[in-house]
């Protein structure tokens, strides 16, 4: 190494710009800085200020209804439907195919340790101003205040029926495919969904709290077995279920919150899974009952939540995807063509973007694209492109996925008014160790049928970002690629980020005040949204909305330790009292700054 003194000499002789080292340049630059120090008297400075959340304006009304009122739409319903109310009484004797004893028989193999602490709807109490004080500002926040979102940007929060409602066996609800989680027979009593957040009876409180802090959109799901307990077309309709969700929607409007309604968020009636070929008929029967009553007040509908990852987890076999596409299209066409609804209809997909572990390695690129074909292409191709299932899937031996007919593709194509998906994070992809072809030919391989290895660890050994308690991570560097892949591959009219969120590591083990100061969750949302702004303004992607998961700590399909909530729920004293976390304030603040007027 050449000594610095010699470099300085060479710089003088040979020209500074050509020879001076970076160290020499830094010394020369710093020598010109004049620093002045002085003493003065010390005094404390106020560094905090009290700022309160701004509530929504209420009530909310729409200039025109999104569909005919029920008094007109009711003529579209079958004339021979039985409307009734069920109560669970296990001692009843047989009284017909759909009688009270038949209803009790639905629950014969399910019971729960914990009982709901209350069984009547709670009135909403005013949120004290002391709960609406913003937390201290984040001084390390990097923002682009000049980048704006349109005034009609759909921003808010989300949750699902099974994960928050509780009261599984109350007011005529039938069993769902999820209800064995937390049942006594599963030996999983710590995750008893029979209580969850008790939102079935606390929904007014929940909606009032969202309105008080200024959240304008709420995405929630309707429990299909609460409306059709037996799950079958032609079976009785539960009037208490219909009344409940009618009141939920009215409560949203009363407080100024716009409802986004999902018809099925995983919790299908338990009887449905035994024969997925009946899904289109059964689902349409349920959807008609709901839409004729609520569609005049609901601008956005989601048919199914994340069915693209349900194969062999919830749904039996890959051809279940065809039945789901058929059911979705049937509801879409009925809503648009017969009900003459003017709202928008979509389906939500799951996707954690597959990124090649080494983009210069062709096998890694092939693996990433294959993964995306299996997770998004199987439904995105026919719905958005009017194309066949991806060849990657159809050519996989023993997958038992039947190619779509031209008539099916024509029926499915164009039945999505916008793209909706849940891009929590990205992941690195490479081919199965034995190669994709060898893996695809071996149905017993643990990586079959995708035959892709995924990881959160980069090729250089670093994690891609700050990890959560489960799979999510703070890795905003991949947000634009996630949005760009969908935008340029499937070319939708717009993209709704229908779920995204972060569950801090071991969050449930922290004190209540520590959980409330959920900085990591704030950083996740702030970083994700900053990159979304760049995708809109620099990449030309039409992102129409973003809905955070979730507005409450809930039952993450058997776990209360994976806390995605922007509010906590006190489960220790039986009150189930909600408490805002700082992430919800920061989330609302971001949109107040960036959504245009």
UniProtKB/TrEMBL annotation:
Molecular function GO labels: beta-glucosidase activity
GO BP: any one term: carbohydrate metabolic process
Alphabetized InterPro entries for the sequence: GH (IPR017853), Glyco_hydro_1 (IPR001360)
Signal peptide: 1-20
Keywords: Signal
Pfam family, one: Glyco_hydro_1
Source superkingdom: Eukaryota
PANTHER family associated with the record: BETA-1,4-GLUCOSIDASE (EUROFUNG), GLYCOSYL HYDROLASE
Family, per entry: Belongs to the glycosyl hydrolase 1 family.
Name by which UniProt lists this protein: Beta-glucosidase
């Amino acid at each position: 190494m050449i000594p610095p003194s010699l470099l300085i000499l060479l710089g003088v002789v040979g020209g500074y710009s050509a020879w001076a080292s970076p160290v020499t340049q830094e010394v020369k630059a710093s020598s010109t800085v004049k620093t002045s120090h002085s003493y003065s008297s010390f005094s404390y400075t106020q560094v905090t200020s009290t700022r309160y959340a701004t509530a929504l304006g209420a009530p909310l009304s729409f200039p025109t209804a999104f569909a005919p009122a029920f008094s007109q739409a009711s003529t579209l319903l079958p004339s021979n439907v039985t409307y009734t109310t069920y109560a669970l009484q296990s001692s009843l004797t047989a009284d017909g195919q759909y009688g009270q004893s038949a209803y009790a028989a639905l629950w014969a193999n399910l019971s729960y340790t914990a009982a709901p602490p209350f069984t009547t709807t709670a009135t909403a109490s005013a949120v004290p101003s002391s709960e609406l004080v913003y937390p201290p500002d984040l001084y390390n926040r990097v923002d682009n205040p000049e980048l704006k979102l349109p005034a009609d940007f759909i921003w808010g929060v989300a949750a699902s029926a099974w994960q928050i409602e509780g009261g599984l066996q109350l007011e005529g609800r039938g069993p769902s495919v999820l209800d064995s989680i937390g049942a006594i027979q599963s030996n999983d009593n710590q995750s008893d969904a029979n209580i969850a957040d008790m939102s079935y009876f606390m929904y007014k409180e929940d909606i009032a709290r969202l309105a008080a802090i200024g959240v304008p959109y709420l995405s929630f799901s309707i429990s299909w077995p609460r409306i059709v307990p037996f799950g079958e077309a032609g079976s009785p309709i539960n009037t208490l279920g219909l009344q409940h969700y009618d009141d939920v929607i009215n409560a949203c409007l009363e407080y100024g919150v716009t409802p986004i309604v999902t018809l099925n968020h995983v919790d299908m009636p338990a009887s449905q899974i035994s024969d997925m070929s009946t899904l289109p008929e059964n689902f349409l029967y349920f959807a008609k009952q709901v839409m004729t009553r609520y569609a005049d007040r609901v601008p956005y509908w989601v048919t199914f939540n994340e069915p693209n990852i349900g194969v062999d987890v919830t749904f039996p076999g890959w051809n279940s995807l065809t039945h789901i596409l058929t059911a979705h299209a049937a509801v879409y066409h009925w809503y648009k063509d017969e009900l003459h609804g003017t709202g928008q209809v979509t389906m939500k997909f799951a996707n954690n973007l597959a990124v090649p572990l080494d983009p210069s390695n062709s096998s890694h690129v092939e693996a990433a694209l294959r993964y995306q074909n299996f997770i998004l292409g199987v439904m995105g191709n026919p719905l958005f492109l009017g194309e066949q299932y991806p060849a990657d899937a159809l050519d996989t031996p023993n997958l038992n996925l039947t190619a779509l007919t031209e008539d099916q593709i024509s029926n499915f194509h164009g039945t999505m008014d916008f793209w909706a998906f849940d891009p929590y994070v990205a992941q690195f992809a490479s081919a199965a160790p034995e190669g994709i072809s060898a893996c695809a030919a071996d149905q017993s391989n643990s990586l079959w049928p995708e035959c892709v290895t995924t990881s959160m660890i980069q090729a250089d050994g670093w994690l891609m970002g700050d990890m959560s308690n489960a799979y999510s991570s703070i890795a905003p560097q991949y947000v634009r690629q996630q949005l760009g892949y969908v935008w340029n591959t499937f070319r939708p009219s717009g993209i709704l980020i229908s779920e995204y969120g972060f569950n801090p590591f071991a969050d449930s083990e922290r004190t209540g005040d520590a959980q409330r100061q959920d900085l990591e969750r704030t950083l996740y949302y702030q970083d994700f949204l900053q990159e979304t702004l760049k995708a809109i303004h620099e990449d030309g992607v039409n992102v129409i909305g973003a809905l955070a998961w979730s507005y409450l700590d809930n039952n993450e399909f058997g776990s209360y330790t994976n806390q995605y909530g922007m509010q906590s729920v006190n489960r220790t004293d039986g009150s189930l009292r909600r408490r805002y976390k700082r992430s919800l304030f920061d989330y609302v603040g971001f949109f107040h700054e960036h959504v245009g007027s």
